Amino acid sequence: MAGKIKPIKQNVFHKLFHKITATRPVINFFAPRMHFIDFYVLKLTGGKFTLAEVAGWTIIQLTTTGAKTGQERTMPLLAGVDGDTVALIASSFGREHNPGWYYNLKKNPECRVTYKGKSSTYVAREASGADYEKYWKVVSSNYPSGYANYKELAAHRHIPVMILEPKN
């Protein structure tokens, strides 16, 4: 699958949708619910579609090994794609703490990425320096108003960017 994830080309509707979804009331409503909604839409469509794709976002399913439990956890996430590399921003909708998947990847960097029903194994690392800036832009270009808002909401913490590269 490496290199086969194609970002969705965004149009005017997507950009308007982004502005609406970046507002605090919408974030507060969807933040605790969106992954559940997408989980069931993915299940109903055989892993091929998510509700979030309506916004023009590239959504992957990330399967990690739990940092505390050792159990597999799967989460649909907005991803940025740069060639064979997949990047994720651990914004958690601008909430107080980093998302659980971030801690899972820190402890167990090997993970599985599924996109449109096809899976591959990746290895994660946390971005820093120039990589951080580059991949923040790659991911946030999909949802600039949202990630700018998340950065403001989470000003009390550093928002990590995780880089996933295909396992050789």
The H-and-E topology, N to C, reads as: HHHEEEEHEEHHE
Question: Helix count?
Answer: 6
User: What is the CATH T-level topology?
Assistant: Pnp Oxidase, Chain A
Question: How much of the sequence is in beta strands?
Answer: 25-35%
Instruction: Provide the CATH superfamily.
Output: Electron Transport, Fmn-binding Protein, Chain A
CATH architecture: Roll
Largest sheet: 7 strands, antiparallel
Low-confidence stretches: none
- Tell the overall outline: globular
Strand order in the largest sheet: 2-1-5-6-7-4-3
The count of strands amounts to 7
Q: Can you give the helix content as a percent range?
A: 25-40%
**Any idea of the CATH class?**
Mainly Beta
Computed CA radius of gyration, to the nearest angstrom: 15 Å
* Whole-number mean pLDDT: 84
Number of domains: 1
Question: How far apart are the first and last residues' alpha carbons, in Å?
Answer: 12 Å
Q: Decide which structural class fits the backbone.
A: alpha+beta
The gist of it:
It contains 6 helices and 7 strands.
Question: What's the topology here?
Answer:
Blueprint: H1 12-21, H2 24-30, H3 34-44, E1 59-65, E2 72-78, E3 80-82, E4 85-89, H4 100-107, E5 110-115, E6 118-126, H5 129-140, H6 144-153, E7 161-166
Textual characterization of the structure:
This protein has a single domain, classed as Roll (Pnp Oxidase, Chain A), CATH 2.30.110. It contains six helices and seven strands. The chain has helices at residues 12-21, 24-30, 34-44, 100-107, 129-140, 144-153; strands at 59-65, 72-78, 80-82, 85-89, 110-115, 118-126, 161-166. β5 and β6 form a beta hairpin. The longest helix has 12 residues, at 129-140. It is globular, with a radius of gyration of 15 Å. It starts with 11 loop residues before the first helix and ends with a strand. The model has no long low-confidence stretch (mean pLDDT 84).
